[in-house]
Amino acid sequence: MLNSPFAALRHKNFRYYSFGMLVSTTGTWMQNVAQPWLAYDLTGSPFLLSLVGAMQFLPVTLFALFAGVMIDRFPKKAVLLLTQAASFAVTLALALLVYSGEVRYWHLLVLSFLLGLATTLDMPARHAFAVEMVGPADLMNAIALNSTVFNLARVIGPAFAGILMGSIGLAACFFINAISYAVVFVSLLFIQPLTQVEKEPSRKGIVANIREGLLYIRQTRDLLQTFVLIAIVGMFAPNFGVLVPVFAREVLGLAESGFGFLMSALGIGSLAGALAIASMSRTGPSRKILYWGPLATGAWIVAAGMTSQPILTALGLALAGFAFILFNTSGNSTLQLTTRDEYRGRVMSVYALVLGGTSPLGNLYAGLFAEHLGARAGFYACGLAILVLVGLKVLLLDRVAANVAADRARHLPASSADESGELR
Predict the structure, then answer these.
(1) Residue 117 and residue 124: Cα distance in Å, rounded?
(2) 155-166 pLDDT, tens per residue?
């Protein structure tokens, strides 16, 4: 059943937030294009390029669980103001280094790590803040529109970046991204949360709070099942920043503008997926999308790597982006709609850990294949890994879980057999 894909925009808070995020994510995607191109220029190595991406996601792996406790303890708006200020400072430093001509590879590693520290707090805080801006009724639509904004920026940002890189230079992309964080900071000042979970002083330590959140996830079957799928897709799907610049140069013979075109095609497909899922948001997350989305993503990643024509590569990337966003939005919605308010920050920090924390491993995996066997092999390795692992999960883990649930149901009273809740 379809509904208005823009329902969440009736909330003034969300309109302010969406404008700021459109500007910011456009700047972020400009940097996402410029930074790997710069890293490849400095090193000439796909593997060293992949290390830059790995360094940006490493803090998520190390500190996401601690970040979740902080998000549950402090107002999310205040956390987001802090992360925008920190991201502005780090990105401005990189812009000045590039502009001065003094940038070195190690600068990229250090500044990527620092930006990753800000992201470790920012990513789960943004997701957890959505319900405070729009309420639970429009939550899935807000998540889908967030994805729409993100992917509209994915179309605009790489296209602008490709033009600026070829005409003005790389530094312009980093300066624009720094300014974009200031825009988000200002937009957040105008937001007044509709609902806010009371922050009771916790008598437990940080480690005890982390353990409590992990136990909650383990005991909630829909959360646990969704996290397994997110881990698989998060490791092997979003490696385009490593593979596409190498593929564009080595296989397709493209320059900066051609690379920007390919990344924009990925964004167009992702944007279409976000709009599609926004139109279905009133029906809630679908189990079919949670399984077919990853399988389609893996298949189209393989297809994109098989082509030798830029237009066909762009088509494969667009379809991979479409399928990935269908899955990612459904997965995010499942987590948020299943989670109790007092655990929201910790659950979304695990989401950041699983989705973002697996990315360094995925970046290294893709980079090693591209380094030693070529860019095509990197596409094949990532796409096939998704297909095989999701297939194994369906055939093995889900069958075991179904048998365990059936055994439990036979030994429980009828009134308690449906406590965990099931996706449609």
Answers:
(1) 12
(2) 788 888 988 988
pTM over 0.85: no
Task: Give the closest residue to 193 by CA, choosing from 123, 134, 126, 122.
Answer: 134
Tens of pLDDT along 97-117? 999 999 999 999 999 999 999
What is the mean predicted confidence (pLDDT) over 313-338? 90
Tokens of 356: 């973002």
- Packing angle of the helix pair 139-167, 256-279 (nearest 10 deg): 170
List the structure tokens of 171.
């530094």
Radius of gyration of the chain (CA): 21
What separation in angstroms does the CA of 95 have from each of 38, 69, 84, 179, 318? Answer: 12, 32, 16, 11, 30
Residue 408 CB coordination number (10 Å): 12
7-192+206-410 is classed CATH 1.20.1250.20: yes
User: Which stretches of 135-170 are DSSP H helices?
Assistant: 139-167
- The Cα 353–Cα 336 span in angstroms is 15
pLDDT at residue 201 is higher than 60: no
Contact 173, 31 (CB under 8 A): yes
Token representation of residue 261: 């075109």
For 253, phi then psi, to 5°, come to: 65, 35
